[in-house]
Design a protein that fits this description.
The protein is built from 11 helices and 13 strands. It has a single domain, classed as DNA primase, PRIM domain (Alpha-Beta Complex), CATH 3.90.920.10. The longest helix is centred in the middle third of the chain and has 17 residues. The chain is about 30% helix and about 20% strand. It is of the alpha+beta class and about 290 residues long. The relative contact order is 0.16.
Length: about 290
């Protein structure tokens, strides 16, 4: 492939074939329910488009046709940590959102849940394996307290996502309130960043998005796959070869499943829900 991967015919063929794959599409759509979807344009940032709602495969195909016409633009795909009762309406004909400013000012009223993202990000491609070693340390800390989490490779590092219903805290979604959940998340990330390397302390705002599992992670000189780990053994066997799209597709269908089927430390039936509270107390947050 050429140095700028977007200019390669091989890349264009892979990119379009990937999102036509029935199983890949099915897995991706599982993450869109009540979420905002963002298409981040890697080769022309001004074309980045967000606050989209996609409910089914037809809407998914529609947005891809609109955004990716003429093989000109290529996107990384994200979904919101928040689930929403309502999103602004997109007027595609005039390419503008209807009522966005009002929606944004009242967004806390439309928010239903907010997952916690811990983004362990490598500063460059050469440090991904060092980031992996640090991710193992963070994982051991969460496992010590039975914190439930999803764990994924992001393309440049690793994502822990703690579902909102397992946090064990009840806080406001209004950033104007003193006890809002985003301030609590900011403190949580600061504690983790003091203990571990490569933790992104900025991932605490209300509009934060995260890469969609099983989507392609496209960069100037390479393309990898954002994928979930579906067992402890799967994570512990990680190597960079796993991130190649062709290797993700070569896995057996029953292994090619979304991480909604594997929540690490999902033992609340025997130990009680909301195990995150023990970790928060250990850090002095509660």
């Amino acid at each position: 492939m050429s140095r700028r991967i977007f200019d390669s015919a091989e890349f264009r063929s892979l990119y379009h074939a990937w999102y036509k794959n029935t199983l890949i599409r099915r897995r991706i759509l599982e993450y869109f329910k009540e979420r905002e979807v963002m298409f981040k344009c890697e080769n022309f940032p001004r074309k980045t488009t967000r606050t989209i709602q996609i409910r089914d495969g037809k809407q998914f195909d529609f947005w891809r046709r609109v955004l990716e016409k003429d093989d000109t633009y290529y996107y990384n795909m994200y979904y919101s940590l928040a689930t929403w009762k309502k999103l602004p309406f997109w007027d595609v004909k005039n390419w503008k959102k209807t009522g966005f400013d009002k929606w944004y000012s009242e967004r806390h009223e439309h928010m239903k849940t907010y997952d916690f993202l811990i983004d362990v990000d490598a500063p460059d491609e050469g440090k991904i394996m060092k980031t992996y070693e640090e991710t193992k340390r963070i994982k051991a800390f969460f496992d010590r307290f039975d914190v439930p989490y999803y764990l994924r490779f992001s393309g440049t590092g690793f994502h822990f996502v703690i579902p909102y219903d397992r946090l064990g805290v009840d806080m406001s979604f209004n950033t104007a309130d003193d006890d809002n959940i985003f301030r609590f998340k900011k403190d949580f990330l600061k504690y983790l960043a003091d203990m571990f390397n490569y933790v992104d302390e900025s991932a605490h705002d209300s509009m934060r998005v995260v890469k969609v599992p099983y989507s392609l992670a496209v960069y100037d000189n390479r393309v990898t796959t954002c994928f979930p780990f579906t067992s402890h053994e799967h994570f512990l066997s990680f190597d960079m070869g796993m991130t190649k799209p062709e290797n993700v597709l070569s896995r057996r269908k029953r292994d090619l499943k979304g991480d909604c089927f594997f929540l690490f430390n999902d033992n609340w039936r025997t130990k009680g829900k909301n195990r995150c509270v023990d970790a928060f107390r250990y850090l002095g947050m509660l």
